Amino acid sequence: MTTISLRKGNTRLPPEVNRVLYVRNLPFNITSEEMYDIFGKYGAIRQIRIGTNKDTRGTAFVVYEDIYDAKTAVDHLSGFNVANRYLIVLYYQHAKMSKKFDQKKKEFRKFY
Asked: Which residues does the UniProt record annotate as the domain RRM (predicted)?
């Protein structure tokens, strides 16, 4: 297996770049093996978590061992076609994700 490397000496990365990627618009029936095949081309993967309940289906988290591998994956896989669906690959932003979670929790409390 070959990996594509981005390292060029002391390359400075933007602050939003990190090892954890948030992937949207996945086919609901994608397997973890298929995810490893797609994302593993860009470097060693520590973990992949695929959403399984009705709110998280079609999404996944991919954690790379190296930040440069994660950047390469985002650069190459954003817009990549998988089963006639174009992937949306973003860097995981904890602050933004926790705000969305808090907002959903508030909406849930309105009804119950």
From this structure: 19-94
CA distance linking residue 97 with residue 80, whole number of Å:
23
Give me the pLDDT at residue 31, please: 94
Contact 69, 75 (CB under 8 A): no
Q: What's the residue count for the chain?
A: 112
- Domain locations in the chain as residue ranges: 20-93
The answer to whether the CB of 25 falls within 8 A of the CB of 86 is yes
Look up the CATH number of domain 20-93.
Answer: 3.30.70.330
Alpha-helical segments (H) within 19-81? 32-39, 67-77
Instruction: Determine which helix (DSSP H) or strand (DSSP E) holds 91, and give its type and residue range.
Output: strand 88-91
Cα(first)–Cα(last) distance of the chain, in Å? 51
Beta pairing class for 60-64 and 45-50: antiparallel
Could you tell me the pLDDT band of residue 23, with boundaries at 50, 70 and 90?
A: very high
pLDDT tens-place string over residues 82-109: 999 999 999 998 776 655 555 655 555 5
